[in-house]
């Protein structure tokens, strides 16, 4: 059984490395000019930058609390800065799922070359996929180390002349537990990250056009940003959203993950929801084995030895192996999950939604249900399924489609979607 899991993990890692190599080849050498070696960055737990002032200064969501110049690199060896891009780490105001003011960390990346298109430089608020629960997984840190597995997707967006922002989301980097897969929190963090970038004077972005883009956990974040934008951040000139591999309905996702090789992702989401909704009281449902897993998982990063070990150790296990009773069968847990189910509101901007038909992590049926729910509410959705792709391959196959979709949205081209198909 463990051999099978290791084979799955090796395949996923090979796919990620293949994506990195392909993206590097496509981008050529224009950004590979030698640069001076950057200073070493400390992990968030050892870096006072990530600790917000208490209490938070007065302000509104998206206000920058503090910022500093940083390094963006795709080189994990020398950590040479990626050429032609200026980088800042920021700490900014956002809101929890319950509307409480919080501080969230993130990154702002801006090409140094002047924008040659019409109007102001476009901005993509990029939402990352699953990192883990530990602060050292925060993208604002991994992007300084050259081993962020989505760094070349980000670099591709930068090569188009777009500015890119990447939120760490609630509790990833900053003190406290990450509210993993709590969609309303993630959507707010994505929108407020765009606001923070536009309010960062050094970035020089102003109130230009904005788009959101994410896959997997990032697809949840992008989907929620698209649903919330009109009510939560109406001043943003949001032009479009890309949401791929979307865990839209976590009750359906949990049912698919229970007993699968990737059941650890469900356990991570349980921690995230328990953090966002303390009244759920996850601990009261756990047996001794569950309490041990909870303690181990609270600081785990998936792309680490501990993360791989946790995936292997939990593979093919079930909720009942770690609990005295199943919290997902209670009204309280079901209500919290349903409150973060996508599809209740039509996005106010065009959306591209892609999904692998053979996705072994995110069930195809619930993603299909999301696009149909959005279409039924009058949304402008371009839906595409990748017939021979599982989760990782769908991410790779959908990337060119995502970039093309955003290119057209920033160019002001109309799109009708394919809801009627």
From TrEMBL:
Q: Does the keyword Signal apply?
A: yes
The domain of life for this entry's organism is Bacteria
| Signal peptide positions on this chain | 1-32
Biased-composition ranges, Low complexity, are 34-44
Entry's Pfam families?
A: LIP
Name the Gene3D superfamilies on file.
Answer: 1.10.260.130, alpha/beta hydrolase
Does this UniProt record's set of keywords contain Cell membrane?
Answer: no
Name of the protein in its database record: Lipase family protein
């Amino acid at each position: 059984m463990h051999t099978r899991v290791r084979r799955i993990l090796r395949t996923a890692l090979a796919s990620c490395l293949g994506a990195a190599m392909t993206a590097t080849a496509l981008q050529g050498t224009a950004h590979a000019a030698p640069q001076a070696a950057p200073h070493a960055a400390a992990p968030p737990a050892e870096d006072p930058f990530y600790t917000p002032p208490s209490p938070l200064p007065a302000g509104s969501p998206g206000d920058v609390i503090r910022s500093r110049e940083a390094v963006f690199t795709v080189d994990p060896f020398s950590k040479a800065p990626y050429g032609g891009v200026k980088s800042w780490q920021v700490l900014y105001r956002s809101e929890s799922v319950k509307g409480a003011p919080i501080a969230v960390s993130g990154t702002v990346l801006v090409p140094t070359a002047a924008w040659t298109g019409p109007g102001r430089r476009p901005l993509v608020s990029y939402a990352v996929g699953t990192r883990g629960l530990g602060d050292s997984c925060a993208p604002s840190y991994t992007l300084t180390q050259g081993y962020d597995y989505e760094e070349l997707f980000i670099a591709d967006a930068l090569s188009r002349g777009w500015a890119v922002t990447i939120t760490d989301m609630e509790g990833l980097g900053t003190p406290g537990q990450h509210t993993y897969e709590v969609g309303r929190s993630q959507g707010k963090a994505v929108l407020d990250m765009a606001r923070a970038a536009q309010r960062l004077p050094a970035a020089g972005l102003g109130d230009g056009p904005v788009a959101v883009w994410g896959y997997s956990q990032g697809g949840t974040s992008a989907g929620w940003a698209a649903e919330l934008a009109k009510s939560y951040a109406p001043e943003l000139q949001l032009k479009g959203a890309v949401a791929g591999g979307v865990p839209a309905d976590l009750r359906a996702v949990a049912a698919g993950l229970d007993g699968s090789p990737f059941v650890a992702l469900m356990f991570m989401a349980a921690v995230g929801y328990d953090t966002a909704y303390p009244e759920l009281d996850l601990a009261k449902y756990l047996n001794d084995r569950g309490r041990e897993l909870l303690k181990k998982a609270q600081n785990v990063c998936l792309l680490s030895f501990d993360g791989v070990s946790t995936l292997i150790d939990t593979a093919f296990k079930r909720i009942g192996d770690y609990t005295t009773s199943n919290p997902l069968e209670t009204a309280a847990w079901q209500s919290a999950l349903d409150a973060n189910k996508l599809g209740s509101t039509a996005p106010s901007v065009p959306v591209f939604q892609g999904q692998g038909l053979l996705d072994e992590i995110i069930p195809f049926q619930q993603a299909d249900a999301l696009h149909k729910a959005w279409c039924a509410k009058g949304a402008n959705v371009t839906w595409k399924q990748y017939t021979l792709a599982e989760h990782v391959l769908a991410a790779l196959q959908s990337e060119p489609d995502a970039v093309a979709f955003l290119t057209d949205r920033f160019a002001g081209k109309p799109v009708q979607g394919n809801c009627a198909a």
